[in-house]
Amino acid sequence: MIPELIKVHGCLMLFGWNFFLNNGIILSRHYKQMWQQHKLGGFALWFVLHQLFNSMAVVCTVLAVFIVVYYSRGYSELDSMPFAAHPPCGFISGSLILLNPLVALFRCQPTHKMRPAFNWVHFTLGTVAQTLAVSTMAIGLIMQRQASESDQSGHLNLYLASVVFHCVIELFLEFFGYEEIVRYRAVFQTVSDHINVEELDSKRACFKKFIYYLYFAVSLAFTLALVGLLASA
């Protein structure tokens, strides 16, 4: 039987890492040239949404860690692998998720000479956190399967399907973006964050937006399904 607090911990992590964090990363990596005509508080829409999603990921992470530490009465040490990797991977990933917004406070102007260094640090912290989050959640779902009285292998399979879906979308957007740069090479020699792709090619822009709307809907559906299965386990 899975304790209720552990279920809450898992549900928060699924929302924080499988939905909010992934959406924030997708927007920052692939949609900087979209919605240029829409501003919120003087900031680009992608940037505001990126901050919102990542902030929600931080909130979910902090609450989830607090709950599991409270339940375990401290740091939980597990003996056998891969379960023993769950707490340290979770704490490292959570720490990086908390650290990255602090790093973002030192974000310099796009034309500043240190901007490439900032971009690489911010990207690396986010990627490592995301990678560790995937392995941590997978281990957590294996632990849930072990603790449950019924067969819960479908939970892990569904989560892995969501990871594959995310990777497919990421790869597609990478190739799509590369082809975009090649097509508009002369334009992209300027600061790419401020290029309005919608003005260059409205059909491509609409298609790229559709891909994000699809990603948002499917990632939300995956997360809600996983949360529902975990809550009812």
TrEMBL record:
Keyword rRNA-binding listed: no
GO CC, one annotated term: membrane
Protein's cellular compartments: Membrane
Keywords in alphabetical order: Electron transport, Membrane, Transmembrane, Transmembrane helix, Transport
Entry's transmembrane regions: 6-28, 40-71, 91-108, 120-144, 156-176, 210-231
Gene3D superfamilies: 1.20.120.1770
Domain Cytochrome b561: 1-185
CDD domains attached to this UniProt entry: Cyt_b561_FRRS1_like
Family annotation (PROSITE patterns): CYTOCHROME_B561 (PS50939)
One family name in Pfam for this protein: Cytochrom_B561
Protein name according to UniProt: Cytochrome b561 domain-containing protein
Organism for this UniProt entry: Paragonimus westermani
